[in-house]
Structure formats: structure tokens, C-alpha cells
Amino acid sequence: MTTHGREHGGEQVQTQVRGEEGDPIPPGADEFRAGFPRQSDPGFARQRSRQARSARGGLMAAGALVALVCLMVIVGQLTSGTQAGVGTAVYGLSLASAGLSVELARRGRTRLAMMAIIFAAAGASLADALP
User: Fold this and answer.
1) Hey, which residues does 11 pair with through a beta bridge?
2) Phi first, then psi: what are they for 10, rounded to 5°?
3) Phi, psi dihedrals of residue 8, rounded to the nearest 5°
4) Residue 100 confidence class, pLDDT cut points 50, 70, 90
5) Nearest to 91, CA basis, from 75, 76, 70, 72
6) Can you tell me whether residue 33 is helix, strand or coil?
7) How far apart are CA 22 and CA 38, in angstroms?
8) How many C-beta neighbours within 10 Å does residue 15 have?
């Protein structure tokens, strides 16, 4: 990036030129670039990678825990001899949502995995209120 001065009506005007195209850079570009000073740092990239891996692992563990709880409740309801009702079906849907969250977290879709865990936990906690 180079800066060139040119005369404009008697005053000096600074323009920044991009590469070989010669297109001027918009005025807010320097502030925008100042927000990313550490992206070229290899240590920063490794730290971000570790954090992402840790988040994926944590979400996979949370999803597996919710799935295990739902599975235990379903097995307990079905073996107790009580009639399987809407609550058991909701536990089944919560189990499916928790399993989906594990797979989403494994693939790196952590926001979607978190939403699936929230839906699974909410469904599991509301399932007891259903007949």
C-alpha cells in the first residue's frame, strides 16, 4: 500500500492506492485493518484452534450427557410397565435432538449444536409435565 499526494485546488490531498489497480481505498479502511493486527501471528491461530477444539469437545460432552439422561428416562418408563404417553415421545425427541447436537458439534457447527442442546434440555424438562 502506497500513499501518493496530489494537488487539488491548492491543497494537498492524500490518497492511498491499492496494488496495481490504482483504486483508492475508502476512508475507513485503516480503522478496519487495525482491528486485525494479530491474525498473521501463528500463536494466535493456534490459540483459536485450541479454543474451537475445546468448545466442540465441551458441546459434544454436554449433548451426550443430555442424550444419556433422556435414554435412561425412556428405558425406565418403558420397563416400569406404565403406559408410554406423550411424555415418552417428547423424551424421544429430546434424545434425537441431543444426538443431533453431538454430531453438529463434531462437525464444527457449535452454534447449531448449542441450540440443539437447549431444545433437548428444554424438552426433557417439560416432558414430565405432559401426560
Assistant:
1) 8
2) 90, -5
3) -140, 100
4) very high
5) 70
6) helix
7) 27
8) 13
Task: Indicate the pLDDT class of residue 9, thresholds 50, 70 and 90.
Answer: low
Q: How far is CA 103 from CA 31, 38, 94, 124, in A?
A: 39, 32, 14, 19
Cell numbers for 106, please give them: 463434531
pLDDT in the model for residue 92? 94
Residue 53: closest CA among 42, 61, 63, 64: 61
CA 124/CA 65 separation, integer angstroms:
12
pLDDT at 56: 94
The 10 Å Cβ neighbour count of residue 94 is: 27
Q: How far apart are CA 85 and CA 111, in angstroms?
A: 32
Strand partners, 24: 17
pLDDT, one tens digit per residue, over 37-94 is: 656 677 777 888 899 899 999 999 999 999 999 999 999 988 987 777 888 899 999 9
